[in-house]
Write a structure and sequence with these properties.
disordered N terminus, two-stranded antiparallel ribbon, disordered C terminus
Amino acid sequence: QLERLAKTGDNPSAPEHDERPPRQIAGESANCLTGDLPYATTPTSGTPDQNQPPVNDKTSFTDLLSLGLFEQSPSQDIIEFLTRTYFEKWQYAAPMLHPTRYTMSLYLPPHMQPPMCLQYIVMASGAEVTKTHRQLAMPFYHRAKAYVEADEMRLDLVADTTQKKGDGQFFATVAHAQCWTLIANFEAQQLYFAQASMSLCRAIRIGQMLGLHRVDGEGVDAMSLLPPPQDWSEAEERRRTWWVIYSSDRFVSGSTGWPVMINQQDITTHLPASETAFETGVEEQTSPLTSILLQEGRDFSAFAGRVLAATCFFQAFQHSTRTLPDDDLTDPRTSRNWKRHREIDNDLVGLLAALPDDLKLPQNIQSRNATFVNSMIHTSIILLHRAALARIGSSGLPEHMAKQSQARLICAAEEILNIIRMMPDITQTLKNPMMNFCIYTASLVFLENWDTSAQDYRRQDNLNFILRIIILAAKVWNNPVTKSTAVQLAVDMRKRGLESEAVEKATEFSSGLDMEPIMAKGSSSSSNFVYQGKITDDAAHDMPD
């Protein structure tokens, strides 16, 4: 069945058809980690033997459980291709899996491979960024969720009386935390924001149960369900898994307005090391998050730069939506709100200046991580100063303060625009909902026309360019996030009388889409826009045949 789905691909070894009917999910998941790599699982949890007879109606429930999850396994060529594609094109967004160790583990005996839930979501993520196998993305995503949810129920069903039911040992593993995080990322790309948030919550709690937030902590509070790491690389993978979860939590909160789930004060895990150190296993000393934020730490890695950008983004958003009580906004020198504004602004400027060489632009314009981190920093500046302008206007503060914030807004929006112009693969980058958020936030600056000295044609040219890029990405990848963003930006432009050919093209996407705006103000008093999460999404619950 999978080979039939992939017949449009470039895999010459895939058979044209398979007359065996697809097998249905029965109950128990495949592999479960008992720790980190190398992967270890229970003997009955491997990929089922394709020669096993189908389950009949008279099969006992216990026998059914022992057989595991049934479906035709994808061919080895597809597994290798999609896994390789994931590491080449999507690993930058969640750099927590060790590329070499993970890939090699796929050739181990079934009971030593990664859990099937992790394998399937890695392949689903790889399929989502390829044109030849994209039709496999959703089936693999559904399989990943079925396996990981079955793992959660597993201890209530095991026959081994030596295991205590419900103690969570089978699903509370590093691999399952990684799986739920990748599932959340995948769901966000499909516009399933509510489901993505719930999946991320599971990853957060599993990570906390495992003590991933205290890998470098000491004392009783740092005890976890995991045994000590076997080497530095294993400890680093735990750190990286935690920081991917943490960054996702900050990005979700800052782009939806929902509260964060992680208390920064509870974290003692050091920031991640460089990619080279992680892949080669050469130990590298890093600093805690707090020391870097206080500018007391040493240099930081590219991944750590992403973590810091996520932290500053959330701080800017949080400050833009909250006003401290009993504070006099009319006095910028003594106001706690204005003091906090200056602290965050200085942190953003300092972070931009302190970025490591592999995050600096334009020399690293082909690095998706570099473009993402820089775009997020400039987006944070826009959030901060949009809120500042709203407070300046409501408090009757001097005009020169408004002009300063307007200048910062325009500069940040133009920097994002310049990054977009230089990027060689912008259509694929826009599959990331946060990059759509950055671009839409920049377009708000041009829509509101803060730069009164600029000619109207320049303003419309900038907006048309942004809209054309979003339309191109939507057509190339048929992505619901980019489609919805294009429609909303076109509506915003039309409301302001900015008609163009790009606006007409964007309206073509409106058919078949929920016309409720993808972005909206969190409240009437808010100065910034957030993604709107939907409570239900039937598409996310429909399992494929």
